[in-house]
Design goal:
The protein has 14 helices and twelve strands. The chain has 376 residues and is an alpha/beta fold. It has one domain (1-100, 180-187, 203-369): P-loop containing nucleotide triphosphate hydrolases (Rossmann fold). It has an eight-stranded mixed β-sheet, sandwiched between helices. It has a four-stranded antiparallel β-sheet with strand order 2-1-4-5. Bound molecules: adenosine-5'-triphosphate (ATP), iron/sulfur cluster and magnesium ion. Magnesium ion (MG) binds next to helix 2. Adenosine-5'-triphosphate is lined by residues 16, 33, 35, 53, 55-61, 217, 283.
Length: 376
């Protein structure tokens, strides 16, 4: 673990046992969902690591296992140098103050029977912090996330989707954490509002010196906010790299497919778009060898047998690793090429840059009243 690492994940594994059918039980076969399979990575202090992959690739399970919201099946997580596996109940509670989570769907993650003020105050009460100054802190936090403090006595349903996510972020910040796991925090929001929330998270990270694990299934969302990106497929990390490098010089065929699948705003180019074919295979019975082989355009017979390790990519920047036995051939130009322009506008969230330049807050942040987007 380097001195700069806040979180060190090693061999993290999470299997869920299945409700076996009668036949399986008679045959004595116990099946499990192999949601996360020996994942290892570090998150440096103050950085944003993006975790990206299709639905079902194990992103949320990995995040929950890191925070021990679900007990890992195997592997270790060190937080600020200490092995969390050995934490006592009180140490775990202290850890939970330091590591907070922002969820995908602000509508379901906020208690609809409580006012937003009560919601933001609750973590302070649980951790016994800021006694006597909690109301004042609620007002400050609402202001920080761009919500009018005078609405602290309103209920979540009185706010727009984007504003509710601002409440979720204020709640996460309430106990002054140093690590935030944001699990698809903008996926439930309109694209224009996504840009607002991404800008907010980006600004807050600087302001509060936060370390962020940012989960998304869309690489375009990842680009602007992440320093490094880990790409996940069927419970494993298949590529990890500095974010700029990942977009400029992707190595793993799965990463290339994800980049090509980014929605194309220009209709003429949309026809050239390559869509990744097939579903993610079942994590109950993953494919042999390289688990991507049934969908990989570069797969060979060897790929069905050899399970590649996540290894440094020769000639790439330090820390760029990929798990593919043919990766060197791609570098040498013998295999499929990335064929991607790093300046491609597909890799930007529509409105992100515009919103940053103009400071526009289309979801009603810092407005006079609750906004009006259709996901309210
Ligand atoms: N509690 C559970 N019991 C059984 N299987 C589970 C459980 N939680 C997740 N899984 C399975 O583990 C796999 C990984 O799920 P996970 O929710 O971590 O994926 P994800 O990458 O976060 O997907 P999404 O983008 O849809 O949120 C899936 O096959 C899912 O069905
Ligand atoms: S190991 Fe083979 S199947 Fe797997 S990503 Fe590389 S080329 Fe594709
Ligand atoms: Mg998820």
């Amino acid at each position: 673990m380097s001195d700069d690492s806040l979180v060190e994940v090693r061999g993290l594994t999470k299997h869920f046992s299945q409700n076996d059918g009668l036949v399986d039980r008679l045959l004595g076969e116990r099946k499990s969902v192999k949601a996360v399979q020996g994942v290892s990575f570090d998150i440096e202090r103050g950085e944003t690591l993006g975790l990206v992959g299709e639905s079902g690739s194990g992103k949320s399970t990995a995040a929950r296992a890191i925070l021990r919201l679900d007990e890992p099946t195997a592997g270790t997580v060190r937080y600020d140098g200490e092995d969390m596996t050995d934490f006592s109940k009180s140490e775990m509670k202290a850890m939970r103050r330091r590591a907070q989570m922002v969820f995908q769907d602000p509508a379901s993650s906020l208690n609809r029977r409580k006012t937003v003020g009560q919601i933001i105050k609750q973590p302070m009460e649980i951790h016994g912090l800021y006694e006597g100054e909690r109301d004042e802190r609620v007002n400050e936090l609402m202001d920080t996330v761009g919500l009018p403090p005078q609405y602290s006595n309103r209920y979540p349903h009185e706010f727009s989707g984007g504003q509710r996510q601002r409440v979720g972020i204020a709640r996460a910040l309430a106990v002054n954490p140093d690590f935030i796991v944001a699990d698809e925090p903008v996926s439930a929001l309109d694209v224009s509002i996504q840009a607002q929330i991404l800008n907010l998270l980006d600004d807050l990270q600087d302001e509060f010196d936060l370390t962020l694990l940012f989960i998304a299934h869309d690489l375009s969302v990842i680009r602007h906010i992440c320093d490094r990106v880990a790409v996940m497929y069927l419970g494993e990390i298949v590529e990890i790299s500095d974010a700029d490098q990942l977009f400029a010089n992707p190595q793993h065929p799965y990463t290339k497919s994800l980049l090509r699948a980014i929605p194309e705003p220009v209709p003429e180019l949309a026809r050239q778009r390559t869509v990744l074919e097939g579903e993610v295979p079942s994590p109950i019975d993953p494919p042999s060898g390289c688990s991507f082989h049934p969908r990989c355009p570069a797969a060979t017979e060897e790929c069905e047998r050899i399970d590649p390790d996540l290894e440094s990519v020769e000639g790439a920047t330090a820390g760029h690793r990929a798990s593919c036995i043919h990766v060197e051939e791609f570098v040498a130009g013998e295999g499929i090429q990335a064929d991607l322009d790093p300046a491609d506008e597909r890799f930007s969230v529509e409105g992100f840059d515009a919103a940053r330049t103009t400071g526009a807050a289309t979801d009603g942040g810092k407005s006079d009243g609750p906004g009006d987007d259709e996901r309210r």
